[in-house]
C-alpha cells in the first residue's frame, strides 16, 4: 500500500499551511544562522544579516517569478494579472538567485561594505538553503525527472520507502531529481566550508566557487527533468549541450522536453561556469583580488550608520 505524504502541514480554519513554505522558511533560517556564525569571525553585527535576509527574500521571490514569466511570456501576455498569481506556481531558482544578488548588492553597498566580502560569507547560506528547499519540491511531487521503475528506486538507488512512494505520481515512478540536487548541494556546502579556510582564497572567489559548483550539478541534473523552461535554439547549440551531457548516458536517460530543444538552465549553467573561471583569472591577473577571504572586513561608512 502506497502512503503519500500530505503537502499540507496543518490548517488554521480556511488557511492551509503547506510543507513547502515551512521547508523554504527553514532553509532561509539555517542560511541566516550560518551567515551570522561566520560573520562573528569578522565582527559583523548579526542584525546586518537579518536585514539582508529581509531584503533578499522578497527580491528573490520577485526575481524568481520575473525569470519564469519572461521565458513563459506567451502564457501570460493575454492574462497579465496572472503574472502576480505566484501561489499558482511558476518560479525559477536562477531567477531567485539573480533577484537576491541584486537586492543584496544595493543593501551591502549602502552599508559601506565590499559586495564580494559579504557574498563570500553568504555563499554557504545560499547553497544550504537550496539543499533544504528542494525537499519542498519533494513534498509537492514536482521538479522530478522522467519515468523510472520501482526497482530502480529501491534496488539501484536503495532509497527508503517514503521517498519511493512519494515518487509514485498517478501510478508512475519518476527520477527523484530533487534528491540528486539536494545531495549535490550538500557536497557543495562541505566544499565551501573547506575552501573558506584555505589561505589561497581571495575575496569573491568563494561566492564564484558556489556559482560554478551549483551550475555544474544543475547542468547535468536539469537534463533529467521534464519541466524545464526551454526555447528553440540552433542545432550546433543542441549538439554542444548533448556532447557535454553525454557522459551521463551511462547512468540516466534525458527527460522528455515539453517544448523547445534547449533547456535554459543548462545554457545558463554553461555560461556561469565559463564566466566564473574567467572572472577569477581576470581578477587575479588585473590585481583586483589582492584581499584574501580571511582578511578583516571593514565598512567605509561610520559605525553608527552600519549598525542602524
Automatic annotation (TrEMBL):
Pathway: Protein modification; lipoprotein biosynthesis (diacylglyceryl transfer). One of its GO terms (molecular function) is phosphatidylglycerol-prolipoprotein diacylglyceryl transferase activity. It holds the Pfam family LGT. It comes from the Bacteria. InterPro entries: Lgt. A 1,2-diacyl-sn-glycero-3-phospho-(1'-sn-glycerol) binds at residue 134. It is a multi-pass membrane protein. Keywords: Cell membrane, Membrane, Transferase, Transmembrane, Transmembrane helix. The chain crosses the membrane at residues 17-36, 48-71, 91-108, 177-195, 207-224, 264-282. Coiled coil: none annotated. Its EC number is 2.5.1.145. It is found in: Cell membrane. Catalyzes the transfer of the diacylglyceryl group from phosphatidylglycerol to the sulfhydryl group of the N-terminal cysteine of a prolipoprotein, the first step in the formation of mature lipoproteins. Belongs to the Lgt family. PANTHER family: PHOSPHATIDYLGLYCEROL--PROLIPOPROTEIN DIACYLGLYCERYL TRANSFERASE, PROLIPOPROTEIN DIACYLGLYCERYL TRANSFERASE. This is Phosphatidylglycerol--prolipoprotein diacylglyceryl transferase. The lineage of its organism: Bacteria, Bacillati, Bacillota, Bacilli, Bacillales.
